[in-house]
C-alpha cells in the first residue's frame, strides 16, 4: 500500500496518481477480502472481517490487508465513531492534513462530510498547504485531523496555533504525534539528517515528544483531553480491532 504510494510519486505523472490509487483500490480490495476473510478481527475503516492483521515494519497485527489501515488509524476511527459527532449525519467541514490513503478513502465515503485533504507534497492531497501559515480565514473548519505531522515541523507551536485559529468555535481537532520520550526534547544544534536519526529516531523529525505534548497543545489555547481509548475498551475489543492500548488520542477543542 505505502510502497505503491512511493512508486506512484516517483514513476507516474502527478495527474495520474489518483487514477492509479483508484485502480489499485478497486482491484486489490475484493481479492484481499476473500484471501484474509475470518471472524477474529475487524477493520473499523473498511469493515473487513479478517483472520488477522498483517505484520508491518516489525510490528505484529499492524496492517489491514484490505485497506492498509494501521493501528493508529483504527484507533482514531473508533474514536471518531464512539466519542465524536463526526458520523451523526450533520454536514461538517473537515480538514485532513497529510492524508493517509486508507483514512481518506473511508472519510470520503461519508457523504455528509465536506472533506479537504492537504499536504506540502503528497500526490494524494487535494490542496497544498503550509500548516504554519494556513491560507484560510479564522473559524473555517468544524473538524481537523492531523496525525504524525507536527514532529516534522520546526515551529510546531505555530502550526498548532494555526489549527486553533481556523477551527470554528464548537469545533474540534485530533492532533496526533508519536510519544516516545519522558519529556518533549529538541536541540537547535541537531540539524542534519544523520544527527536527527541518531537523537530523534528519524532523519526528518525535529524533536521527541513526551506526555507533556498535552500542555504544549494547551499553551496555544486548546482545551485538550488525552484519552487512552484502548485502556477504556475490553482487551478482546483491543485485539479484535487491532489497536495499541497505550496510544492516547489528543482531542482538542477551541476554548
Ligand atoms: Zn481495513
Give a brief outline of the structure.
The chain is α/β, with parallel strands linked by helices.
Describe this structure in words.
The protein has 255 residues and is an alpha/beta fold. It is 32% helix and 24% strand. The protein is built from 8 helices and 11 strands. It has helices at 2-11, 17-35, 71-83, 101-108, 156-166, 193-200, 213-218, 235-241, and strands spanning 37-42, 49-50, 54-56, 59-63, 92-97, 113-119, 127-128, 141-147, 167-176, 222-227, 249-254. The protein has a 7-stranded mixed β-sheet with strand order 7-6-5-8-9-11-10. Strands 1-2 form a two-stranded antiparallel ribbon. A two-stranded antiparallel sheet has the order 3-4. β3 (54-56) and β4 (59-63) form a beta hairpin. The termini are far apart. The mean pLDDT is 92. The site of zinc ion (ZN) has 8 residues, from loops.
> For the report, how would you describe the main beta sheet?
7 strands, mixed
Number of helices: 8
Q: What string gives the helices and strands in order?
A: HHEEEEHEHEEEHEHHEHE
Helix amount, in percent?
25-40%
Q: What is the SS-derived class?
A: alpha/beta
Shape: globular
